[in-house]
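URGENT: need a sanity check before tomorrow's submission.

F., can you look over the AAA family ATPase record below? I want to be sure the sequence and structure line up before it goes out.
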Amino acid sequence: MSEVNITDIREVLRNLAAEKGISFAAIAKEIGLSSGALSGFMNEKYVGDNERVESALSRWIEEQQYASELPETPEFIETQTASQIWTALRYARQMTCISIVCGNPGVGKTEAAREYCLRNDNVWMITASPSSASILECITELAEALGIDKAPRHKGPLVRTVRRRLSGTKGLIVIDEADHLGMEVLEELRLLQESACVGLVLMGNHNVYSNMTGVSRTVEFARLFSRIAKRVAINKTKKADVSAVAEAWHITSEEERTLLQEIAAKPGALRTLSHTLRLAAMTAHGAKKPLNETFIRKAYNDLNLDVDVSKLLRG
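Structure tokens as predicted:
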């Protein structure tokens, strides 16, 4: 590669970084380079393979240019369900109690909680999983969210460290996918919430709540269940939510809005609808045509979302 090309790439990269407000360290991470290597390259002091770095940066720049040409899509859409979830989060925080938000996949629980975290200080959200279902792993995830460096790797010291960090914050802990957590972990979270005087929200599918109202409730979950101050159950997508999505996407025709309602009623709900609209918008943009029912229907079919999974599993 010529020296002129390398110089051009440096200039383009500087402009892109400034325009997007992204650091060179973040760019290096995206393209699989060390921050030191990229810094050296940008300062014309890199002694390694400059052509390899230039090639990686060229590909990254091309991706950014491609992304910039795509149609703008709505970011967070404030739906009726989102407002309902925010009320549960605010209540848990203000009352320093426990709220439960449960519902079917795709109705907007996670996105609403993430947006609440972005809009409010001292709100920490983690996502439970099978690998973080133990006390140690779950509280370690919380410690990382709290910005605790070098958290202890033993339960007792770890919980005490997290408690000290939470105390006095009047904050809120949000646990997404909390249906992965067993009674022992939930009890530890309850004790942490009470002792630190913060709010706690458990989010997930309906098992989050049914675990506490089943046969075992009187023995294992009694203390936790009695402290649930607010429960929000979202069984399906509201028509008003889909209307809000249609407004955000500037979809006005009755036929198109009816189609959106039909898609949102399928498994996956708003998540499925979002994937469909994004693909439809890209396809319409490529065809230099406005987004319409034809593109939406084709996108839904291309995503192969209306499939009976049980039939596939049976072969």
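My own read: The chain has three domains: 3-69, 80-234, 239-309. The CA atoms of residues 166 and 204 lie 23 Å apart. If you see anything odd, call me.
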